[in-house]
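One thing: can you check what follows?
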Amino acid sequence: MYHFIQKFHSGWAYLALLLLVFAVVNSFMGMSSKREFTAKDRKIALFGLIATHVQLLVGLILYFVSPLGHALLGEMKDSAARLTSLEHPLINIIAIVLITIGWSKHKKGETNTAKFKSIAVFYGIGLLLILSRIPWKMWF
């Protein structure tokens, strides 16, 4: 079961990252062209939000069933162990909180530019944080 969850978490990450990149690029394009914020734009951002939340839930399940998670907590001097047991989960939780804040703020935006800006900024920061803490050596 652990290996299935691990593979799902790794595979779903591609989809989540793709949707986040698409949402950020779409928002920057919408802001720069000063176009109207449509239902399509809302759905693009919503799919990015949903994908990251699914990734978070699967990641939390993986963390608590992983034989590595509990064993590595005492080995904080090893950078690879620290990345997978502390930095990756913590930074990604912060990133998903920022993405969620961006979703909430866009709903309160009164102008099209404000809606696009909320998504672009918060989703963009979340995306950068996620990219900064991916265990690249384990991913490829």
